[in-house]
């Protein structure tokens, strides 16, 4: 009887491990905080006198929030999303990627949905990348990137302690 219990427990452990990778649980960005990041990014640029668009995507590049300030040109929405997508693809700020991989920049700019420009920043919750924000419309990508970073900063405590 004891041997069958031991064998049963052994099989339970082995079989449990065999199916452990069948379902993967991941963190992703929620709509509420995505909207807050987008709005805070726009307000950060507005304080500097810039009319911009901000787009937040999840870890897979799926659109979560897109906002365009009142006078921002309409194409800034598309550019902001492409900057955010670049972050999803590379895992780092789009401006850093632009500097590190200037050798493949022209090719990447021909891929639908990507643009290699400054202004995209990863969003992390407790160190785990859950999305990205892209900002477009300020005169220069470095200014867009500062606004995107400020948008994330405004909710970073919520991100760090999210369950």
UniProtKB/TrEMBL annotation:
Claim: Coiled coil is one of the keywords in the record: no
Signal peptide: 1-20
Domain of life: Bacteria
A Pfam match: HbpS-like
Gene3D superfamilies documented for this protein: Haem-degrading domain (3.30.450.150)
InterPro entries: GlcG_carb_metab_protein, PduO/GlcC-like, PduO/GlcC-like_sf
Keywords: Signal
Family matches, as PANTHER family: SLR1406 PROTEIN
Protein name, entry field: Heme-binding protein
């Amino acid at each position: 009887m004891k041997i069958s219990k031991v064998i049963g427990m052994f099989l339970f452990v082995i079989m449990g491990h065999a199916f452990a990778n069948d379902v993967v649980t991941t963190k992703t960005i929620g709509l509420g905080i995505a909207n807050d990041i987008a709005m805070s990014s726009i307000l950060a640029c507005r304080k500097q006198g810039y009319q911009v668009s901000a787009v937040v995507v999840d870890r897979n590049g799926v659109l979560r929030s897109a906002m365009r300030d009142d006078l921002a040109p309409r194409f800034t929405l598309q550019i902001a999303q492409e900057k955010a997508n670049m972050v999803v693809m590379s895992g780092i700020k789009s401006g850093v990627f632009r500097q590190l991989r200037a050798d493949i920049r022209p090719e990447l700019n021909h891929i639908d949905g990507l643009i290699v420009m400054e202004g995209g920043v990863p969003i992390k919750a407790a160190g785990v990348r859950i999305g990205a924000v892209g900002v477009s419309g300020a005169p220069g990508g470095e200014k867009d990137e500062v606004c995107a970073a400020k948008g994330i900063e405004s909710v970073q405590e919520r991100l760090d302690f999210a369950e």
